[in-house]
Design brief:
The structure holds 2 protein chains of 2 kinds. Chain A is α/β, with parallel strands linked by helices. In chain A, about 50% of the residues lie in helices and about 10% in strands. Chain A has 3 domains: about 120 residues, no CATH class; about 250 residues, 3-Layer(aba) Sandwich (Rossmann fold); about 45 residues, no CATH class. In chain A, strands 1-10-7-4-2-3 form a 6-stranded parallel sheet, with helices on both faces. In chain A, strands 8-5-6-9 form a 4-stranded mixed sheet. Chain A is elongated. The model of chain A has no long low-confidence stretch (mean pLDDT about 95). Chain B has 2 domains: about 120 residues, no CATH class; about 110 residues, Rossmann fold (3-Layer(aba) Sandwich). In chain B, the strands form 2 sheets. In chain B, strands 2-1-3-4 form a 4-stranded parallel sheet, with helices on both faces. In chain B, strands 6-5-7-8 form a 4-stranded parallel sheet, sandwiched between helices. Classes of the chains: A alpha/beta, B alpha/beta. The interface between A and B is large, with 65 and 70 residues.
């Protein structure tokens, strides 16, 4: 599946016409919103946690250079090999080199958006390295050749029936739509792969600077098998994923699971301290971590927009978004979707490719309220809209219209004449002006013709009040 | 108490009745009304579309016109949010920064003003109908005003106030969004109107004419029976009924 962020308008239309997709997304997001609310409402200090998380992330992002160096030193002391990648190509090159050196033919992967971001799977396949997704949702999405449609629930856009059909067609099993049976089918296939894979690739939820450890949270134990069974483990992380110490991790673990899946805690919290020899004789022989920039330091340069780097990819803003609820994640055309995706798309892909994304929002603010790190997403979307306009990617007709309107609004007399005119015309026309597309489904209000000012002043005059300073 | 009226564009040109109702209610509670002639637009539609420098002059003249008033009150949460919060994102003239701060502290949305500033406990009035309330997003989330309008509605005699499913769900208007992404916007208002109708209310009350225009437009085009009503109209009508 090859999506483009610049095609978002047509993806949205397609999604709105796809009733099966809409039903699946509606059901999944409704459940997620309810489950989250149940957990969040039970935590009386939830708002305090959100503030603390925000302050912690601000400290990390604003002193990222220090924390990264501290992490590198500590991780190396733990026996983890640290690699720096400026962009996707460099990250892929590093991974390929490690694979070649260790004669890797098969790779198991646990869910990682960062590896989606660098298009790792197709890259490995093209080099005859088999990469298998082991998170159930990702496994399904990979079988379909889709990309994830949600940050934490990759196959959210599919129904049980879709998955039953897919397994029947691709895996040759009898059709079933029973979730437990589907799970067993996937599990049986994946177990064998875990035991024979040459390398495991994972993402990272939080990296701890003080101790050089990596944290991965999950529910299916597939991450645990990915990072523990093969002899080589590579963790790919964006440079923003750091936390100062385990004390701060506690705050984030309290926030993440309720926000993401409506759980109190995830089933597993994996903490990686290093390879085999520093532990108790279990684990991989090599642990590599790739610190990926890929545009993040550019985002860091903007004092306001750097807040978008606080994201912990929980997906709460997606579930809460009345737009995501209607169209799902593929409509955004990139691996990061929903409200936070709409802020990341123009920043990572450039304002030309991402020129529509910041506008796919009614600025309702439900995302900000759901965000466990208090990222003011609507505010950032507004700033990015400004960037799109400033870089000349808005429509010429819109620009002319707005400039003309803004000019008139500087002069009350002119503005009054300009706004009086449509009222008069409408009086002759006797019905609201048609706006293509808009008025097909919605009536619009009629221009009053007289307006508040005239009415109010006439009333006052009738009351005998003296009107002064009329312009 | 002297209240300067800030009449947003939609209220001026499409829904002057609601603004006049606001004047009636404010007079009823004993406020002295001050109409600032020469006001135009706060600049919100352009700002939300990404245009900043075009509206510097609008923001500057708005601040100059209003900053010395005792109170500034508007029948719209989003226009108040523009002045109170988003004027801080505009690179306006330095000598107006103090005036901007001053204005941000005394501009209020209508229901917010009645409840938080005037501390109105009971307005009186009768309205023997079933109503529901739609939370406008900017009013609710940018200004944090959701209890105030409900409190005012509940003080009206004989009113049957019911909450709809997800009263704070966006109606899908979003200014130019409603045109730029028409199909999406329509699918959102369709859902909103479904919840409104399911509530069984005769009237859907709101505090922002823009959301009400969007909702009313859909209800009317689809012959749904619920009517929309601005909260200022509701209170003014209730007072006349008494």
């Amino acid at each position: 599946m090859n999506l483009k962020a610049s095609h978002t308008k047509s993806y949205i239309k397609q999604a709105l016409n796809n009733d099966v997709l809409r039903a699946a997304v509606d059901k999944a997001t409704r459940t997620a919103v309810k489950k989250r609310a149940d957990k969040v409402d039970a935590i009386p200090y939830w708002e305090e946690l959100r503030y603390r998380a925000h302050v912690i992330k601000r400290d990390v992002i604003e002193h990222l250079d220090t924390y990264l160096q501290q992490f590198e030193t500590q991780a190396q002391a733990n026996g983890i090999k640290v690699h720096w990648a400026i962009d996707a190509a460099e990250a892929r090159k590093i991974i390929h080199a490690i694979a070649v050196k260790n004669n890797v033919k098969t790779v198991v992967k646990s869910k990682s958006l960062t590896t989606e971001e660098i298009h790792l799977n197709t890259f490995l396949m093209d080099r005859d390295i088999q990469a298998l997704e082991t998170d159930l949702g990702e496994y399904i999405v990979q079988l379909l050749d889709h990309i994830p449609s949600h940050l934490t629930a990759p196959a959210l856009h599919l129904s049980r029936q879709d998955i039953g059909k897919l397994f029947h067609e691709k895996l040759g099993v009898d059709y079933t739509e029973n979730p437990n049976e589907l799970l067993s089918i996937a599990r049986a296939r994946l177990r064998k792969k875990f035991l024979t894979a040459d390398m495991g690739i994972s993402g990272v939820n939080f990296a701890i600077a003080e101790s050089g450890c990596l944290t991965i949270v999950e529910n299916e134990a597939n991450a645990r098998l990915t990072i523990g069974l093969p002899k080589v483990h590579i963790a790919v992380m964006g440079i923003e994923k750091l936390l100062p110490s385990f004390r701060e991790l506690a705050v984030f673990l309290k926030l993440l699971a309720p926000s993401a899946t409506g759980q109190k805690q995830t089933v597993y919290v994996n903490i990686i301290g290093g390879p085999l020899h520093t532990l108790l004789g279990e684990g991989p022989e090599q642990v590599h971590v790739i610190l990926l920039d890929n545009g993040r330091s550019k985002i860091l340069a903007d004092p306001q927009l750097r807040e978008t780097l606080f994201c912990i990819r929980c997906g709460a803003c997606l579930n809460a978004c009345p737009i995501y609820q209607q169209v799902g994640g593929h409509a955004y055309g990139w691996v990061y979707m929903g409200p936070i995706g709409a802020t990341l798309i123009p920043q990572y892909l450039g304002v030309k490719e991402g020129r529509y994304a910041p506008f796919v929002s009614s600025l309702c603010g439900a995302c900000f309220h759901a965000c466990p790190v208090r990222i003011d997403i609507p505010h950032h979307l507004l700033k990015l809209r400004h960037k799109v306009v400033e870089s000349g990617h808005s429509k010429a007709i819109e620009k002319i219209g707005i400039k003309a309107w803004a000019f008139l609004a500087r002069y009350p007399m002119l503005y009054r004449v300009a706004t009086w005119f449509p009222g008069k015309v409408q009086k002759l026309y006797k019905k609201p002006f048609p706006v293509p597309g808009y008025t097909k489904e919605r009536a619009v209000g009629l221009f009053d013709g007289k307006g508040f000012r005239r009415r109010y002043l006439d009333n006052e005059k009738a009351k005998g009040a003296k009107n002064s300073k009329l312009i | 108490m002297k209240v300067a009226l800030f009449i947003p564009c939609l209220s001026e040109h499409l829904y002057p009745e609601s603004a006049l109702s606001m004047v009636k209610v404010l007079s009823h509670i004993g406020a002295e009304i001050d109409y600032v002639d020469g006001q135009t637009c706060c600049g919100q539609p352009a700002f939300n579309s990404g245009y900043h420098k075009e509206i510097f002059p609008l923001a500057e003249r708005f601040i100059e016109l209003f900053h010395e008033k005792e109170y500034v009150v508007a029948p719209s949460g989003s226009c108040v949010a523009m002045v109170r919060k988003f004027y801080y994102d505009l690179d306006i003239r330095r000598d107006l920064h103090a005036a901007r701060d001053e204005l941000a502290g005394k501009i209020f949305e209508f229901t917010e003003f009645l409840v938080d500033v005037v501390k109105v406990e009971k307005l009186g009035g009768v309205f023997p109908h079933r109503v529901t309330y739609h939370d406008s997003c900017h009013l609710n989330r940018e200004l944090g005003v959701h209890e105030q309008p409900r409190q005012l509605i509940r003080t009206i005699k004989d009113i049957d106030f019911v909450e709809m499913q997800q009263p704070d769900l966006c109606c899908g208007f979003g200014g130019t969004f409603s045109y730029k992404f028409k199909e999406l916007s329509i699918s959102m208002v369709e859902r909103k109107c479904r919840y409104i109708e399911e509530s069984g209310a005769e009237y859907c009350i709101g505090a922002d004419s823009s959301c009400l225009m969007n909702i009313e437009g859909y209800l009317r085009r689809h012959n749904m029976r619920t009517k929309t009503m601005h909260i200022a109209d509701l209170i003014a009508t209730s007072l006349t009924n008494e």
